[in-house]
Amino acid sequence: MVDVDTAPPFSKLPEPLVGALRELARTKRLLVALDFDGTLAPEVDDPEKARALPESRAAVLRLLAMPNTRVALVSGRALRSLEQVADLPDTTLLVGSHGIEIRLDSPDVQLTLDTAEIRQIGVLNEVLGEVADSVDQVWLEPKPAGFALHTRLATEHNSRVAHLVARSEANAEVADLTIRHGKHVLEFSVRSTTKGEALEHLRQYTSADAVFYAGDDVTDEDAFAALTPDDVGLKSGDGATLANFRVPGPTQVARTLALLADLREGDVHEQ
Fold first, then answer.
1. Which residues pair with 72 in a beta bridge?
2. DSSP 63-129
3. CB 63 within 8 A of CB 40
4. Residues 116-145: pLDDT tens digits?
5. Helix, strand, coil % in the chain, rounded to nearest 5
6. Which segments of the chain have a pLDDT < 50?
7. What angle do CA 166, 147, 144 make, to 5 degrees?
8. Is residue 120 part of a domain?
9. CB of 70 within 8 A of CB of 88?
10. Which of 15, 23, 174, 210 could form a disulfide with 27 if both were Cys (CB 3.0 to 4.6 A apart)?
11. Dihedrals phi, psi of 85, to nearest 5 degrees
12. Which of 174, 189, 204 is the last residue of a domain?
């Protein structure tokens, strides 16, 4: 435990962020919502090999054990994949596929596709599968309400071609399609949800007085946009952002979570 008025010297975090964490730690009911890839876990070429940094995992487990504190993972991954790579207790709230799949305090996953959506997914599978098969180092990941076209291992030229062709062909075949750009990935979904909508749902479900949200990708900007003045948003890495704080990457996110846990341990039990 640390003195709530003094940041530990090893934290190496910007003082304005430390000050915001001090205030946030005093919140009665706190929701800590976190993206996974690029935030808790460094990015890797094989998504199924991604794992949270040990320091991040340790801090998340500490926060999960605290009263009046809920922890949620909000990811673009399919929920089953998120469960496997995160490997956290069932008390962790999980949001997969940008909010299409949600697992709260019951093992049931909230997702139902109607007949028309199932048919659209079949069409997408054909169209995007052809694109992935025709471009080197491009592969297709099935998701509950669509697909992710991965181009991390492809050349810049092949990635650009795959994105252009996939977007054009998919839009021509499927009406009202939601397409999201991420880091080296283009996601296609027959459902239109965002991480911002998911975060609002989590806020209401947990009756949180304030929210800490950390993310690294373009899709996390919807969540940052949903934050209020009492909340704290943390951008991991480069790129334009609506978050009010930024750190270089997952190592500093881990330090931030550890400090939040330290500060909250010093405050939450007295409320």
1. 33, 93
2. HHTSTTEEEEEE-SS-HHHHHHHH---TTSEEEEGGGTEEE-SSS-------HHHHHHHHHHHHHHH
3. no
4. 888 899 999 999 999 999 999 999 998 888
5. 40, 20, 40
6. 1-5, 7, 9-10, 269-271
7. 155
8. yes
9. no
10. 210
11. -75, -30
12. 189
Question: pTM of the full predicted structure?
Answer: 0.78
Which of 189, 222, 239 is the endpoint of a domain? 189
Same domain, 90 and 183: no
Query: Are the CB atoms for 132 and 111 separated by under 8 Å?
Result: no
DSSP letters, 156-204, are: HHHHHHHHHHHHHHHHHHSTT-EEEEETTEEEEESS---HHHHHHHHHH
Helices (H) and strands (E) in the chain, counts: 8, 11
Cα separation, 10 vs 141, in Å, equals 40
Structure-token match 């996110």, residue found: 253
In contact, 140 and 169? CB cutoff 8 Å: no
Rounded Cα gap, residues 221 and 196, in angstroms:
8
Give the DSSP letter of residue 236.
E
